[in-house]
Amino acid sequence: MRDLEEVRKKFINSEYNEEKVYYCKECLSLAIIDVKDDNGNISLSFCNNCGRTDIESTDIFTWERMYREKYGHDFVKFNKYGREND
Ligand SMILES: [Zn+2]
After folding, report:
1. What is the average pLDDT across 17-37?
2. pTM here?
3. Taking the domains of the chain in order of start, what are their residue ranges?
């Protein structure tokens, strides 16, 4: 039953990933580009913003908090309502 176990693991992982965000450790960008090999497996991920390959994953809430702490504004709000006037 090893194959079934592998499939089950992949299924769980894919569901799990939906609640995760992948971000660049350097600039916290979510614009992560995945380079896939012939089997469709991700062989390399890099930041489309700064080009770093230090990619981390976390939940969206943790990431939003990190973003706010780094840039001083809320990422979601910033994008939803446009740039706020100074
Ligand atoms: Zn980056």
Report:
1. 89
2. 0.63
3. 20-75
